[in-house]
């Protein structure tokens, strides 16, 4: 029923292998549900475009082990097969010192086999030592076989096969060096699907690759196992935590803002919210009669000039927020609410101006899980509440607020790093660099929906 696609390390081709498998399975007419281990947003966009089904993140740090199992069981029900794309190397976890939230951890939780992708571009006989080490390192892992990626020639393949033969470990795929199949990247990873003009042709080439490069007689039986059954309802799925009137919430959805967990949007809809897509890049005003605004992450720095050019859109957002519109702004959304964004080229562009600070792009990457305690009430969270989130950005703010939203610590319990203060609350705005997953914390979504129902100003007034 399901298979986890893991790598021996980052950059070995997990995403290419996963997309080739997904595209080939789709071409065979199968219904495929995909998952992504960890907090990533961009790989799930590619999965969703290939399968036509929302990819689900499996992250026990942002949610819980029980939620990971329940989410997986619920979303594989009724499909033909499922693929779980891993994160980093197979055993690399959230802290680096243990494998919590690693691909291996998720494979154990779900009791599914692992397909290990090996980068063979600079290997011959040593490939056997790597494969043997990964198979023996944790006997709880069901290593179904390997995919040999970036194989240079027939002779190279013969050497790899000869080295692996004594291990009796199936070679389930062989991918030659595919210079023509490349997905462009930039400062935060792959370029999202919405910015790739030739994406459909790319998927066609990946499907061709998938059909010809994998050992389907051995692979398909691995995907035929019966699906697990959810032991309990998903938290928030079977209970209406706020049975109030329906509210309309504008969700920023365009090339600048597209980092959303599907489960977060599900939570809002299950609580009675009608989600209305809106583009800060091109729409001159907010949708009519909305009572809340959700500004997800993305790449506002890449589209800062276009965001600045949409002056009426920025002005409408500012006036609505000043009138009390509940607003949840996450990472890129926080940047949009600043006075300006200063790009990598040092040029500055005006933004909404609700937060009295400038987001400045730099070379330093801020990355990692965070434990956070809310320091004050907001439209999303109550003071004193503890959450786990994830940061991933290359911008910093020129000013700090005297009343920060969060006190944060690195997730690693062994870290001696001092806590930091982060996040802004202004009017009914909750703005933070922390990405939060609400799947196991539906009370956060319920609080935001409740805040939205209390906004009674006619939004047309701010258009």
Task: Characterise this structure.
This is Cobyrinate a,c-diamide synthase. The active site is at residue 331. By secondary structure, the chain is an alpha/beta fold. The chain has two domains: 2-222, Rossmann fold (3-Layer(aba) Sandwich); 247-462, 3-Layer(aba) Sandwich (Rossmann fold), CATH 3.40.50. The protein contains 13 helices and 23 strands. The chain has helices at residues 14-27, 42-51, 65-76, 103-110, 126-137, 154-164, 199-213, 216-222, 262-270, 304-309, 311-322, 332-337, 442-453, and strands at 2-7, 32-37, 56-58, 81-89, 114-119, 143-151, 171-176, 185-186, 189-190, 247-252, 257-259, 273-278, 292-295, 297-298, 327-330, 338-342, 348-350, 355-374, 386-397, 406-410, 420-422, 424-426, 429-432. It has a seven-stranded parallel β-sheet, with helices on both faces. Strands 12-10-13-15-23-22 form a six-stranded mixed β-sheet. Strands 16, 17, 18, 19, 20 and 21 form a six-stranded mixed β-sheet that branches. The longest helix is centred in the middle third of the chain and has 15 residues, at 199-213. Mean pLDDT is 91; it is low at 235-239.
